[in-house]
Amino acid sequence: MNIPSKVMDLRKLLLVLFIVFLSLTAVFSVEYFPDETAFSINCIALSTDGKSLLAGYIDNTVKVWNLLDGKLSMNLSLHSSWVTSLAVSPDGRLGIAGYDDGMIIVWEMETGKPLKSLSSHTSSVNYLLVTEDGKTLYSAGSDGTVKVWSLSELAFIRSLRGHSGPVNSIVHWPEQNRLYSVSDDGTLRIWDTSTGQQVKVIKAEIGALSSVNMDEKRSILVVGSKDGPLKFYDVKTWSALRIVKAHNAEVTAIIIRGDLIFTSSRDRTVKILSLPLGSLVKMITGHTWDVSSIVLSGDSSIIYSGSSDGTVKIWDVDKGVALGTLIGFGDGEYFSYNGDGNWVASSKGASRVKTSSGKQPNQQGTELSSLLLQLDKLPRIYVQSPQSITIDNTDLTFVVSQPVVRVTVNDEEIPIGESGKVTFRTTSAGALTIKAFDSIGNFDEKILEVQFEETKMYVIDNVGPYRRGDQVVVSDRKDMDLLVNGEWLSREFFSDIAPDIEPPQITGQTSQQVMIGHEKHLNFVVTDNNEVKTVIVIGPDEKRDEVSVNSPHENIRIKVAGTGEYRVAAIDNEGNEAWATFSLYANAKTFWVERDQGNLRRGQEVTVTAEGENSFFVKEYGWVEKDVLTETKIITESPIIEAEDVQYADANKEKMLNFKVSDDIKVLEVEVSEKRYPVDLKEKEMFVIVGDYGEYRVVARDLEGNTSEKTIRLAAPAMDEKKTNWLLVLVAVAAIAILLLLIFRSSFIRKKKRKVRLM
After folding, report:
1. What is the topology classification, in CATH, of domain 47-298?
2. Fold topology of 505-585
3. Is the model's pTM score more than 0.85?
4. How many CA atoms lie within 13 A of 305 on its CB side?
5. How far is Cα 201 from Cα 203, in angstroms, rounded to an integer?
6. 220: which strand partners?
7. Dmax of the chain from CA atoms?
8. Are 47 and 109 in contact (CB under 8 A)?
9. pLDDT tens digits along 518-544
């Protein structure tokens, strides 16, 4: 049967394509195996910027890979023991390695220079954790302790003791001051990082625990065991949610990102599980020995896994396939290759690896170029998503690989910075489309989710219902306005820094003694957590004195005019003010009136109990101008008492003394038999009723305190005198009677004689 030539040509073409397909399949399935000098990897770590990968080996070295160009940038031999744990400070400045003998070494990432050896653990350092602020380092050890270190001072702070077995993993919740640790003793322990005290102990009941992590919402905590299962806990109630049989051997690491859980295990697999159910999403295989550690890129697109087989593999999360492998040898040589059989390596690397068929890999070139370019054959965007913007920081960043020559965000071109770093600003939240192009038109595309981070801010000036120092939540911004609880308010009233609302303190004796008529001072102390700016003193007469302080601590001694109550205000640089009240008092003092004023007379002795700026307070008289009084005694005359020395009173009548008092100034009072009678006049006639006859001591006292005395005797009329008077009366009556009788007799005799004559 004759076959047309066109059909034959088509069959030949199909056959060629089939052969090419089989060849490509064979190439892409190639696997390289390192020789015996490729030491096992115990741990790996990734720098925050995603540019450097660290691997710790059992040959006592730390190898640092530059992921932007694929070069092994450092091969560090810092200590003579296995490297068991690694960490990088958030700012990328410090590398930290823990060792099998308990030593921790901190070095400079840029130079590899060791800075400090931290020695406190007595056995293997199993886990290192640096807090988000970069100030504190936590280390978990096989000695059953968690050590707390100051990373800024590279100094030991305290030990957290409670576990009865090796502590294998820890996770930190900074907002709640909590640290969570798991151990071979099968317990999850919760610590208060502010005090170092153990808060809670939970028995997981799934055997020895090897790993722990918490979701980004701080709602679920997952622990992994050395037997393979995972156990989920509700963080609010600490009730167990579920147990998931994730692996067949020890779970060596747990990472939770978004709604996915990434785990590694000594069963040689990496698994991706869903959150919160823990159902299997994807299983990644390829290592020939235990997977000892995993890290995740910032954008969650790449997994780096370290293994006891001596390799670090790079996996595409979406596809679940290996993008490349990094191999470090004991003498510092290294080798890296990608899935299509091409490799980039040092000069000795090719002779140390072989394919599964025993062949040497195809050499693409001895000059090491961009590893990531070799891996993907396309421009790459390394972006962490989502990213948050705040009121004051709307910067967003990502990194592109070296072939990228042009970058757009939502079709707007953005300049590329040094080392492929791209920084730009946005004014709103939402999804941004990022594209990175190479010179021939290939491009990578990623979606960056931008969230507006609700920001807690502080009121720095009273506005609306909010008072200075109040904390509010800002949910959006528009130009220079902020959205606070649904109300747009000007940005000028708010700050992300809490204002100093603590007022100054005023201390001192609340009652202070001074002397009337002498210079007086008010003494007190002002202090502030920042700086006291001004002190105001308000006297009893409302006179204000202002003192400039400008110091956090000051002893104040201010001259004042008089006694009484003083109000003191201290004001700091933030406008906070404090008030205190002090009282100046003095003992009463004697003065004399120097010139007449009102009811006061010159020479009068008075008592001053208080003092003002221009006046004294005189007891019983009130405020008097200072120039009216003197402290020098003024001598005046004594009062005069005028009276009969002896005075008489009938027995059947009131007995009364009568006398007159006078003074050149004023008679204040008269005292008779210790009983006082007010006078308050220059001259007065007195009638004082007394109880009986006898001698009475009369004392007159003037305003100056001068006194005079006089004794007055009150007596009854004399008896002899009475009798004499009556006798005189009787004699007179008798004489008159006799005289009348004689007159009558004489008249009678004359009449009788006349009568005789007539007869």
Report:
1. Methylamine Dehydrogenase; Chain H (2.130.10)
2. Immunoglobulin-like (2.60.40)
3. no
4. 36
5. 7
6. 234
7. 248
8. yes
9. 999 999 999 998 899 999 999 998 999
